[in-house]
Amino acid sequence: MTAAIFASIVGDRSAVPASNPSFEVRFGTLGPDRAVYLRRRMIVAILFVAFCAVIGLSAHSVLADHGGVPASTPVVLPAVLPTGETAAAAAPVASAVVGTPYLVQPGDSIWSIAEARHGSIDLTDYVESLVAANGGPALQAGQMLTLP
């Protein structure tokens, strides 16, 4: 609790000598009451949480952006011709991609296969050609790959 002291003059000014003024003590609070204080704190806390959420979502969208490069896209869809059939169905069998077949083993990845088989070709170029030759970077154990 806070007390404030105010000088007051009771009655006529001429009746109170200048050397002996009387003082009045009033009790009360000078700051905001507890409910206002808690409400302000709650608003600041809500604004802080909202700010952190916006920053977190922004950072997530920036850091999780895959950029659309071929090695990070999950699937490459076949092209559709104007007649409605897919390019793979319209292509003759003789124009199939010629390469060495490889059976994917458990634990294999595009990069591990490329590291083992790239030879004198640059590793990243080999990975790109491997992804292009097989329609995407997705692998499953037992899948047959075509090595360029």
Give the full name of the CATH homologous superfamily of the largest domain: LysM domain
The name of the CATH architecture of the largest domain is: Roll
| CATH level 1 name of the largest domain | Alpha Beta
Largest sheet: 2 strands, antiparallel
Beta content:
5-15%
Main sheet: strand order: 1-2
Number of strands: 4
Topology pattern, helix = H, strand = E: EEHHEHHE
Which oligomerization state do the chains in this entry correspond to?
Answer: single chain
Quote the distance from N terminus to C terminus: 85 Å
Arithmetic mean of pLDDT: 73
Would you tell me the structural class of the helices and strands? Answer: alpha+beta
Structure annotation, total helices? 4
Please give the radius of gyration in angstroms: 40 Å
* Shape annotation: rod-shaped
Total count of domains: 2
Question: How helix-rich are the residues, as a percent range?
Answer: 25-40%
- Which residue ranges are poorly predicted, with pLDDT under 50 across at least 5 consecutive positions? 92-97
Please outline what is shown here:
This protein is α+β, with helices and mostly antiparallel strands. Helices cover 36% and strands 15% of the residues. The protein has helices spanning 34-63, 87-90, 110-117, 123-134; strands spanning 2-8, 22-28, 100-103, 144-147.
Topology record:
Layout: E1 2-8, E2 22-28, H1 34-63, H2 87-90, E3 100-103, H3 110-117, H4 123-134, E4 144-147
Helix pairs in contact: 3-4
